User: Which sequence fits this backbone?
């Protein structure tokens, strides 16, 4: 198994790093004729399932040692992402409470990827790379997965498809889930066909999902915060379910159409009917420039949580079932983080839910979460006159949860003197088209 990390942006980009390496190899490479012979019939079988009549030969296969792969990961991470970019992503996660304040994110990326990686497909060099520690029976399994990526790349540029877009972390995670979900599903389909059945004939995926979840083991995986482990597994677990639901409706040959018009949110991956049936695209959210209202704050992060991220934030404090239930009403969001001179994170979050009822459920939940995240303000909330606003004060810092219809605004640790102006700036400048009641 090869988890390709994703994040509220940097984890996403590590996946792109492994899918699209462009640097020079540190050591001379050799292909493996025996592996090439193994790959050829598998490649043809997968191509037939995908409806590709003339796929050509499979990519060459290279073998690398774990130290070689680790050096390459470090070089590529340093080349593609500056220390400032890594730090911005780290601060965004810290601001939401998803990782500890002093967590070394870069080191985790290198350790975790190096620990988990077994193979990958390089769409720029058009080769597959396998770890030299794999046993022969393991080689065939990982080859199946990477050969699907090679076929995907012959239909659409994978390098372009998963290129991370700043501020669109949820969208890129959804694309990764489509790509990895198809690869996992097709791999299992080939294996199941040797037993006289196929993926779409299975009543459910619980056994397969449990197998995938159990594959994330090791010292680095055990040391990673739960959010990051869940994030690593999301493209495989939820992407597999999305591909499974697709296959029950259409043949594998039709899945290529999704790469031209892919899922646009993790909500569409978590609820395949929102993309495959009654389509429900995310509502775009834009936050106004509030820098003049936060004179002591330095911009730290700007992104979207999506349904997956929202569920993780709520679940962290209220439990996973509550997180999944409340986040299921997600329609669109945007957050921005600043860091003040004292190292505190100022957070502005604008969320649109699918109805006033689900917005109210989130607002009530986050009122509880606010007091869990900031114990000094617990039991000091001041309800607004309409009952849809709760605010808190702690010295010069203001906190607020406000619901208006299907929308919710969250402010944390903002300058108390400008709280009202900030909230009005958001409501005035939001410019969103709200869902019908």
Assistant:
């Amino acid at each position: 198994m090869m988890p390709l990390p994703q994040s509220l942006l940097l984890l996403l980009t590590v996946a792109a790093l492994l899918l699209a390496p462009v640097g020079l190899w540190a050591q001379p490479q050799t292909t493996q004729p025996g592996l090439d012979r193994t790959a050829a019939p598998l490649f043809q079988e997968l191509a037939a399932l995908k409806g590709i009549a003339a796929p050509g030969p499979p990519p060459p296969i290279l073998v690398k040692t774990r130290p070689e792969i680790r050096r390459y990961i470090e070089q590529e991470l340093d080349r593609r992402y500056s220390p400032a970019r890594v730090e911005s992503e780290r601060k965004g996660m810290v601001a939401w409470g998803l990782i500890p304040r002093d967590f070394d994110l870069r080191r985790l990326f290198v350790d975790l990827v190096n620990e988990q990686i077994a193979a990958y497909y390089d769409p720029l060099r058009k080769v597959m790379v396998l770890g030299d520690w794999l046993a022969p029976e393991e080689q065939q399994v990982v080859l199946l997965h990477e050969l699907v990526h090679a076929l995907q790349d012959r239909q659409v540029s994978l390098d372009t498809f998963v290129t991370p877009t700043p501020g669109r972390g949820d969208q890129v995670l959804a694309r990764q889930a489509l790509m990895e979900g198809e690869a996992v599903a097709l791999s299992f389909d080939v294996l199941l066909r040797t037993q006289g059945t196929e993926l779409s004939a299975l009543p459910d995926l619980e056994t397969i999902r449990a197998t995938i979840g159990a594959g994330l083991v090791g010292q680095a995986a055990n040391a990673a915060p739960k959010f990051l482990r869940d994030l690593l597994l999301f493209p495989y677990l939820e992407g597999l379910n999305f591909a499974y639901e697709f296959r029950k409706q259409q043949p594998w040959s039709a899945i290529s159409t999704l790469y031209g018009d892919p899922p646009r949110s993790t909500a569409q991956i978590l609820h395949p009917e929102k993309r495959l049936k009654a389509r429900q695209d995310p509502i775009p959210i834009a936050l106004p420039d509030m820098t003049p209202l936060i004179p002591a704050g330095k911009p730290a992060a700007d992104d979207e949580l999506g349904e997956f991220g929202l569920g993780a934030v709520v679940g962290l404090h209220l439990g996973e079932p509550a997180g999944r239930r409340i986040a299921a009403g997600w329609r669109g969001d945007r957050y921005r983080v600043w860091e003040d001179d004292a190292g505190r994170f100022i957070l502005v979050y604008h969320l649109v839910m699918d109805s006033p009822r689900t917005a109210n459920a989130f607002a009530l939940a986050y009122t509880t979460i606010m007091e869990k995240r900031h114990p000094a303000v617990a039991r000091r909330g001041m309800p607004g006159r309409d009952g849809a606003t709760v605010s808190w004060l702690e010295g010069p810092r203001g906190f607020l949860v406000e619901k208006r219809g299907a929308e919710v605004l969250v402010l944390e640790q903002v300058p108390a003197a400008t709280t009202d102006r900030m909230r009005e700036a958001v409501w005035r400048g939001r410019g969103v088209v709200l869902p019908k009641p």
Summary: Strands lie at 61-64, 119-122, 127-131, 298-303, 330-339, 345-353, 382-383, 389-394, 397-404, 407-415. Residues 169-193 form the longest helix (25 residues).
